[in-house]
Design brief:
This protein has 477 residues and is mainly α. The protein is 79% helix and 0% strand. Helix 2 packs antiparallel against helix 3, helix 2 packs parallel to helix 5 and helix 4 crosses helix 5. The relative contact order is 0.12. This is MATE family efflux transporter.
């Protein structure tokens, strides 16, 4: 494996792929870890305001996650196509795809931000936020939501840069953004250096300022990420053919991601019906779970980038085997981390709140996490591998059906109607992740898209559906 002076990694030159996976994964891990740390710091600082404020932040962030998928859809699809084009040596196409992906994400991001800024109160009521929490929700939804377009720009720019193989640049930017955000949080929330105490409003200002600085740095990095420098006038670039490819691969990704986040939003609204303490407990535990899953998620993302490059270079054998390497490494890491959470969860929850009822609720879910997180890793790793080779419609269909029937439907049936509460909801979350994980694993083992691509590369003849042989691996990658 070699890296250019600009940090772009030539993944397809890696013999086994092992080195490439780790070189891609560790910067992604640091970046995601710091983003998770940012959320944890926010949660801890907001908890000093009140547990009610934590509940508002928890459910609002679920909404933001759902909306963010609307304008990062193009970024995800464009990122996969960028990696495939670079793998096949078509760098100019990769550059055009990156520009269009960033442009589309930014336009949609501005539209969403305007809606949140203007209609925060009706949105809060639609989320079943109680009347006493509406004033807090107004502040957070209006100002953090109003700056949400910056999240879309960061995501699209970062995705394009990472899929060239340069995962370090976004990592360094993430470090800077997190440091700035933590410092501004401390100053603005608690009114340091003679400034007024802004409370939840301080979180909002800190979010917008730190994200804006991050976008500026990523734009500079993006301009030099390809063989030909990207200039401001280049954002007028449009290719109907390439844009159509982005749309074809992106809309299933968008529906998939939106379905997941909307299902989580629905589950959070069920938790709001259970009470503020249950909602706060889930928010605290979700923060801890994020740390357990961070390195596993980074491995899954790195695997997607690597497999997309290998698929573009028609190295099908390495692509197929690389998926299992990604899965095994991710499962080992996630399982070890979730065991540590099980052993020290009560102590860790104590860092967030002194309310023993909230802590007890969180502790009651720690054993279920031993099953939930490995199931998530299975689903994430194999689902990302299918996405990397363009098989996005299958993952979309599986996700929508499973999350709607098992995730949301089951959570309401058992958690609310049957009165099982958080335990019932968690059991349904486990069933949903396990069902999706097993289905995407089965799809990958079938090698449908890989065999079709190999046949096209060999002569364009379609593969008959009845052929299930391993002939693919008798060929040279």
């Amino acid at each position: 494996m070699s890296a250019t002076g600009e940090g772009r990694v030539e993944l397809v030159k890696s013999g086994s792929g092992r080195v490439g996976l780790w070189m891609l994964a560790w910067p992604i891990f640091i970046e995601i870890f710091l983003q998770t740390l940012l959320g944890t710091v926010d949660t801890i600082m907001v908890s000093r305001i009140s547990d009610d404020a934590v509940a508002v932040v928890g459910i609002s962030n679920q909404l933001f996650g759902a909306l963010t998928t609307l304008f990062t859809t193009f970024a995800g699809g464009a990122g996969i196509l960028i990696a495939q084009r670079i793998g096949s040596g078509r760098h100019e196409d990769a550059r055009k795809i990156a520009i269009m992906g960033v442009t589309a994400s930014s336009v949609l991001g501005f539209a969403v931000s305007i809606l949140l800024f203007l209609f925060s109160d009706p949105i809060a009521r639609a989320l079943h936020i109680s009347g006493g929490l509406i004033p807090l929700a107004h502040v957070y939804l209006t100002y953090v939501g109003g700056g949400l377009f910056l999240v879309g720009m960061s995501a699209s720019l970062g995705s394009a840069i990472r899929n060239t193989g340069n995962t370090r640049g976004p990592m360094y930017t993430g470090v800077a953004v997190n440091v700035i955000h933590i410092i501004l949080n401390y100053i603005l929330i608690f009114g340091m250096f003679g400034l007024p105490e802004m409370g939840l409003g301080g979180i909002a200002v800190s979010n917008v300022v730190s994200r804006l600085l991050g976008v500026v740095v990523l734009l500079y990095m993006f301009s030099g990420a390809f063989e030909r420098t990207i200039r401001l006038r280049d954002f007028r670039t449009f290719s109907k053919k390439l844009f159509g490819e982005i749309v074809r691969i992106s809309w299933p990704l968008g529906l998939n991601s939106s379905s997941w986040v909307l299902s989580q939003l629905a589950i959070y609204s069920f938790l709001a019906l259970l009470g503020a303490k249950e909602l706060a407990a889930r928010t605290y535990l979700n923060t801890l779970e994020s740390f357990c899953f961070t390195l596993g998620y980074a491995i899954a993302m790195a695997g997607q980038i690597q497999i997309a490059h290998l698929f573009g270079a028609r190295q099908m054998k390495e692509a197929y085997r690389g998926a299992y390497r990604t899965l095994y490494i991710g499962l080992a890491i996630v399982s070890a981390n979730v065991l540590l959470l099980f052993l020290f969860g009560r102590t860790l929850l104590g860092f967030f709140t002194a309310d023993q009822e909230i802590i007890s609720i969180g502790v009651s879910l720690l054993a279920l996490n031993l099953i939930l997180q490995p199931c998530k890793m299975l689903n994430m790793a194999m689902g990302n591998c299918l996405n990397a080779i363009g098989d996005t419609r299958y993952t979309m269909v599986v996700s929508i059906i499973s999350m709607s029937l098992i995730g949301v439907g089951g959570s309401y049936l058992f958690g609310i109607s049957a009165g099982w509460g958080l335990v019932g909801i968690y059991c349904c979350m486990i069933a949903d992740e396990a069902a999706r994980g097993l289905l995407v694993l089965r799809r990958w083992r079938g090698q449908k898209v890989l065999r079709e691509a190999e046949a096209q590369a060999a002569g364009g003849q379609p593969v008959r559906s009845g052929k299930r042989s391993k002939v693919l691996f008798k060929m040279e990658g």
